[in-house]
């Protein structure tokens, strides 16, 4: 296999990893105001992803870096072309990242409420916009002969792009609900499982329409098989959740995202960014690629180190495998509060409990 | 600021300087926290665990900011500098990708394990997580500094007309871009070998000075009667009950550890900086001349000026205090060597690269070079002053004692910033020295409106986050170290208790 094809596949794998891992982080973030009834439950939700969200986010940084190294022209065209959506995504990821880390640093409902909003918006914006971006990559955008994007933000907000965004949004919401059902215990676990079924039905409709449209637009036999596999897994996952099988439900949305992203990349290959202009240049795995030497060096490094990364990240999930319930959340920080010291109820508004 | 070039340059300056406020502290504090936790395991003294937890709070707040602002760094090369990305991607992209794979995964995964893992793994393993995070910060620094060093001194590459004196060969490439021919040459670029220790020692020094300043201030506070303690407010823990003497002993440990680390690190900064200066004179003579505002070539005993009052355009000096021969020594290692001046270099470059202005903005390079050294030294002196003033359980009562604690770490931190301003501004007008001008690197298809939205949006967001971050840091510094709580002592192979609350949760 050509090294350019190897790196196309590796970048596809990085995006698959990103969507299945940070996909449920986004879902958990967006469901914060929907599923949690009080602050204890909000903390349960946040703590299901607390130890792992940062590691999950690195998948996209690695995908970006790998694109820069292996396909510099792709990186340059994509990032300068999809300027405003990427700016919004970056700002959302910043706000969301600090929200997780800062939310618990001070007591008080108002403080937490601000960061809750930040988590919701910071999860929703990328969940929607990554879909818009991917739909437009697959659909094709105006790229001139110098490989520069010549459209604007309005070029990207076409029906196909918006549908792609809504699909990732719905899929991440379902995936997040499945994850919560798998990782929590008590009342919230059952609410999450019920919600995952409703969300899954909406996601299934959007996914079938979007993937069929993609298949008609640019697909091939392999992408058709992957898309059908994705749809089957989603339906099976939702059915499993409806029957109370949370593990199988989560596996369903996990495979759905893997197969859908794989299918999108399969439909794209060998182009990486097709142009819609008659006299433009489509970026392909060959004309956007780095040199054979660079790809060789990168392949050796990736072959040696990627197994370690996957192994220690998987081990983290093993370490934090315990389901979290409301009674696991420590509230002894209230014992140190000044109100408790002078004999008053430390939490009169019931913020923590 | 009417062109995309100006906006993109300002944005790069703003977001990069901002990002690098958190980077040195994350590098240095992760090492200090790991060292403290290890000391606790070795000595079993509760002070070290209290310091571990206290300093780790400051580390985590900083690390969060460093992580999220780092995303912008990776994205903006493509967003604002797409022609740069096309030209150098074959060389510059690889270290960035490898940095993410080798370092970012390590840091982000093991910091999560460290934060939440107190009750999940044995203590030795837990302490090792922070060492792994620290190693991750070092790996990350290695790759990103190798990428930057390549921009200062391109090596191991091929392009149609490489600049004379660079480590690159002539040969045809796709669209005339720079292509990688030797990965190891890029990894062990001589500029990199000077830069990496300089940046890392500076990070250790800055973090150690911060530790000294905070512990010094809390030490001073612990000696005062409770009624005089200001700022502790309602967040003060039971520290009063523990007794001022115990508190002083605790913070004195932090002061001692920090000062000695700072002194050793300063020696490292000094020696590596000296090595760097000589390499810089060799590969970027214009930067050295600009650092000194040396307009005319000095054939022997080039003087080092402590300060100069020059004309507005920075091209002529009116008054200067100079040490004869010192610049020759800094640049070459001999007091009587020739050092080339700006005017001669400008003429040489015009001959080599065609007509144009090859001189950086002299007042910026001249003063940032001095501020870098002056601020670093001032920070260290502040730390030593704290150590000396608190010797033998003395209680410093001077009013300006607090000001030492406030300014010493800020001096050191800003020393890092101006060091980067110097090294990046001193390379101008080049983005890759001798190969690509900054003006040719910018994205051709990004509109000024888009660039304005980006710079205003990011700057406003960063300003808000700076306020939050500083408020949080001050909150935890005022609160001081929490009382000792014995952490879980989990044995190897021990099973989870399903009903036990989490030791730590967000």
Task: Describe the overall structure.
The complex is a heterodimer of chains A (about 350) and B (about 500). Chain A is mostly helical and about 350 residues long. Chain A is built from 13 helices and 2 strands; from the N terminus they run H-H-H-H-H-H-H-H-H-H-H-E-E-H-H. Chain A has a single domain (about 5-340), classed as Formate dehydrogenase/DMSO reductase fold, CATH 1.20.1630.10. Chain A has helices at about 5-35, 40-50, 55-70, 70-80, 85-100, 110-140, 155, 160-185, 185-220, 220-240, 245-270, 290-320, 340; strands spanning about 270-275, 285. By secondary structure, chain B is mainly α. Chain B has one domain (about 5-280, about 360-480). Helices cover about 65% and strands about 5% of the residues of chain B. Chain B is built from 14 helices and 7 strands. Chain B has helices at about 5-45, 45-80, 80-115, 125-150, 185, 190-220, 240, 245-285, 285-290, 325-330, 340-355, 360-390, 400-425, 450-480; strands at about 155-160, 165-170, 180, 305-310, 315-325, 430, 435. In chain B, the strands form 3 sheets. Chain B has a 3-stranded mixed beta sheet. In chain B, helix 6 (about 190-220) runs antiparallel to helix 8 (about 245-285). The longest helix of chain B is centred in the N-terminal third of the chain and has 40 residues, at about 5-45. Residues about 230-235 of chain B have low confidence and may be disordered.
Q: What is the strand tally of chain B?
A: 7
Describe the sheet with the most strands of chain A: 2 strands, antiparallel
SS summary, helix count of chain A? 13
Write down the overall geometry of chain A.
Answer: globular
SSE succession of chain A: HHHHHHHHHHHEEHH
Describe the main β-sheet of chain B briefly.
Answer: 3 strands, mixed
Q: How helical, in percent, are the residues of chain B?
A: 55-70%
Blueprint of the fold:
The complex is a heterodimer of chains A (353) and B (506).
Chain A (H helix, E strand, L loop, with lengths): L2 H33 L3 H11 L3 H18 L1 H10 L1 H20 L6 H31 L13 H4 L2 H25 L3 H32 L2 H22 L3 H23 L2 E3 L9 E2 L7 H28 L18 H4 L12
Antiparallel strand pairs in A: 1-2
Helix pairs in contact in A: 1-2, 1-3, 1-6, 1-8, 1-11, 1-12, 3-4, 5-6, 6-8, 8-9, 8-11, 9-10, 9-11, 10-11
Chain B lengths: L3 H40 L2 H35 L1 H35 L6 H30 L2 E5 L7 E4 L8 E2 L2 H5 L2 H33 L16 H4 L1 H40 L1 H8 L11 E7 L6 E7 L2 H7 L9 H12 L8 H28 L10 H26 L4 E3 L3 E2 L10 H32 L27
Parallel strand pairs in B: 1-2
Antiparallel strand pairs in B: 1-3, 4-5, 6-7
Helix pairs in contact in B: 1-2, 1-4, 1-6, 1-13, 1-14, 2-3, 2-8, 2-14, 3-4, 4-6, 6-8, 6-12, 6-13, 8-9, 8-12, 9-12, 12-13
């Amino acid at each position: 296999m050509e090294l350019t094809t190897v790196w196309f596949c590796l970048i596809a794998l990085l995006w698959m990893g990103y969507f299945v891992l940070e996909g449920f982080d986004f879902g958990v973030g967006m469901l914060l105001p929907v599923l949690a009834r009080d602050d204890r439950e909000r903390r349960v939700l946040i703590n299901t992803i607390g130890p792992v969200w940062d590691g999950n986010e690195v998948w996209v940084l690695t995908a970006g870096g790998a694109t820069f190294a292996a396909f510099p022209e792709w990186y340059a065209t994509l990032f300068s072309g999809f300027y405003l959506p990427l700016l919004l995504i970056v700002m959302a990821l910043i706000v969301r990242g600090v929200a997780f880390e800062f939310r618990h640093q001070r007591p008080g409902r108002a403080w937490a409420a601000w960061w809750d909003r930040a988590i919701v918006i910071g999860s929703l914006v990328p969940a929607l916009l990554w879909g818009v971006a991917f739909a437009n990559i697959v659909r094709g955008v105006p790229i001139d002969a110098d490989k520069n994007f010549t459209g604007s933000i309005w070029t990207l907000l076409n029906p196909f792009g918006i549908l792609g965004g809504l699909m990732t949004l719905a899929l991440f919401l379902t995936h997040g609900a499945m994850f919560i059902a798998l990782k929590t215990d008590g009342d919230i676990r059952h609410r999450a499982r019920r919600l995952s079924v409703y969300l899954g039905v909406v996601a299934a409709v959007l996914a079938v329409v979007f993937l069929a449209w993609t298949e008609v637009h640019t697909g091939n036999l392999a992408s058709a098989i992957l898309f059908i596999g994705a749809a089957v897994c989603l339906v099976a996952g939702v059915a499993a959740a409806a029957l109370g099988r949370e593990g199988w439900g989560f596996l369903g949305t996990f495979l759905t995202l893997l197969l859908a992203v794989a299918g999108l990349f399969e439909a794209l290959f060998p182009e990486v960014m097709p142009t819609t202009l008659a006299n433009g240049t489509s970026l392909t795995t060959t004309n956007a690629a780095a040199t054979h030497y660079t790809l060789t060096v990168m392949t050796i490094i990736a072959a040696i180190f990627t197994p370690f990364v996957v192994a220690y990240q998987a081990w983290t999930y093993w370490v934090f495998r315990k389901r979290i319930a409301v009674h696991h959340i420590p509230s002894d920080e209230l014992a140190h509060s000044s109100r408790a010291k002078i004999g008053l109820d430390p939490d009169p508004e019931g913020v923590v409990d | 600021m009417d062109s995309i070039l100006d906006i993109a340059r300002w944005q790069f300056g703003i977001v990069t300087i901002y990002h690098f406020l958190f980077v040195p502290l994350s590098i240095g504090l992760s090492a200090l926290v790991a060292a403290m936790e290890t000391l606790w395991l070795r000595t079993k003294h509760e002070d070290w665990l209290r310091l571990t937890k206290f300093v780790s709070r400051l580390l985590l707040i900083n690390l969060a900011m460093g992580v999220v602002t780092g995303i912008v760094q990776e994205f903006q090369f493509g967003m604002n500098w797409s022609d740069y990305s096309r030209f150098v991607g074959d060389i510059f992209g690889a270290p960035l990708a490898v940095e993410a794979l080798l370092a970012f995964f390590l840091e982000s995964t093991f910091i999560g394990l460290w934060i939440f893992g107190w009750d999940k793994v044995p203590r030795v393993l837990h302490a090792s997580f922070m060492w792994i995070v620290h190693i991750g910060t070092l790996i990350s620094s290695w790759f990103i500094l190798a990428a930057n060093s390549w921009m200062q001194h391109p090596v191991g590459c091929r392009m149609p007309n490489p600049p004379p004196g660079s480590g690159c060969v002539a040969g045809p490439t796709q669209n005339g871009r720079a292509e990688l021919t030797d990965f190891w040459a890029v990894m062990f670029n001589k500029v990199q070998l000077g830069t990496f220790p300089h940046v890392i020692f500076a990070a250790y020094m800055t973090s150690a000075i911060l530790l000294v300043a905070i512990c010094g201030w809390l030490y001073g506070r612990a000696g005062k009667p409770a009624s005089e303690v200001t700022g502790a407010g309602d967040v003060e823990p039971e520290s009063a009950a523990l007794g001022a003497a115990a508190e002083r002993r605790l913070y004195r440990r932090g002061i001692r550890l920090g000062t000695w680390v700072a002194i050793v690190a300063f020696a490292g900064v000094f020696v590596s900086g000296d090595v760097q200066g000589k390499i810089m004179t060799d590969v970027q003579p214009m930067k050295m001349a600009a650092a000194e505002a040396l307009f005319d070539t000095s054939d022997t005993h080039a003087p080092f000026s402590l300060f100069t009052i020059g004309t507005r355009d920075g091209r002529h000096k009116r008054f200067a205090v100079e040490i004869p021969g010192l610049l020759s020594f800094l640049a070459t290692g001999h007091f009587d060597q020739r050092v080339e001046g700006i005017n001669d270099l400008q003429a040489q470059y015009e001959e080599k690269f065609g007509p144009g202005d090859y001189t950086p903005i002299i007042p910026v390079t001249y003063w940032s070079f001095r501020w870098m050294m002056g601020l670093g030294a001032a920070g260290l002196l502040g730390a030593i002053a704290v150590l000396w003033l608190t010797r033998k359980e003395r209680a410093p009562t001077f009013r300006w004692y607090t000001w030492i604690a406030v300014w010493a770490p800020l001096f050191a931190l800003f020393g890092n910033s101006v060091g980067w301003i110097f090294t990046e501004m001193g390379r101008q007008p080049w983005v890759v020295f001798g190969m690509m001008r900054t003006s040719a690197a910018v994205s051709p298809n990004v509109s000024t409106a888009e660039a304005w939205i980006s710079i205003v949006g990011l700057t406003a967001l960063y300003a808000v986050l700076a306020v939050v971050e500083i408020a949080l840091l001050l909150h935890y510094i005022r609160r001081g170290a929490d009382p000792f709580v014995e952490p879980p002592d989990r044995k190897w192979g021990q099973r989870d208790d399903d009903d036990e609350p989490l030791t730590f949760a967000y």
